[in-house]
Structure prediction request, 243 residues.
Amino acid sequence: MSSARQRAAIVLLATLVGMAVTARLGVWQLDRAAQKRALQSALDERGHLAPLDDASLATTAAQAELQHYRPVRLRGTWRAQNTVYLDNRQMDGRPGFFVVTPLLLPGGDAVLVQRGWAPRDMADRTRVPAVPTPAGEVELSGLIAPPPARLFDFAGGVAATIRQNLEPAAFAQEIGVRLRPLSVQQQDTPGAAGDGLARRWPAPAVDIHKHYGYAFQWFAMCALMAGLYVWFQLVRPRLRRRA
Prediction:
């Protein structure tokens, strides 16, 4: 086989391999999008199920994942002394705090409640808003959610009232109470006394469209490889011979 034919065979093989890989990656991204659509549908369905009570709350991480974004109605007692203000949290594009307080359940363990959002004092960054926390048994409604998302922590996880992150396992040891492996995003209850916290939590959503974008990029690369091969290996040489 001549060197020209060898080069042509290598180019053809490389093009076919590249097209096969990029096409497969495009199909994989479409499959990921289908999985995310199914997950979004499941999350939407959970939001319309009957509320769970404290006895039905998950006790393991695997159980908790299946309960995420289900409605819940709880009775318990606030551990006001263990309230934490999570810094650099936004709501409606404004910086502030997520106010998190453990709710002691009748069984003796507790659940972290994301009670709402409060703006921060820009003049005094160490000042936290006073949030009314009733004593005695309270009842609240909300959605089961994962623990608050982690942000980059320059302070290295210092235990204080204002924190960047809250690790449930370490926090449970710190306060001496066993915590359920989930949190609750508290919702406004009609007729309840206001506490000044905003509770416009974002709707649970999974990013489906990014997978369509990735799939388009992979399929575009596949088509580009095919087009370049046809032009440089088939069309262009033929045009040169005719010239």
About this structure: The helical segments are 3-46, 61-67, 168-175, 209-242.
